[in-house]
Input
Amino acid sequence: MKKPVKFRPLGPRVLVRFEDPETTSKGGIVIPDNALRRPQEAVVVAVGSGRELPNGTRVPPSVKVGDRVLVHQHAHTVAPIVLEGVLYHVVDAWNADCGEVFGVLT
Output
């Protein structure tokens, strides 16, 4: 089992690791790199403390470590981070304009 990452996002942000896209179709056809879509499925590795409301109360995040989530394809606050040789991304889980984490895959 992998040891936990020593990084805690702030506020409503989550740290995710994108899943690698499939490079072959179900029929066995190899998909070239330029035709692969940006990955949208990710695994939550760490979560922040949640969103603070104007009255001072804190709303906890609705995702937890280990959840598989769908991330908005054009998320504008995706920040790449390399920790211990692994590429992760910080994503805003609660954005007032458009949430960048759509939901949890079950």
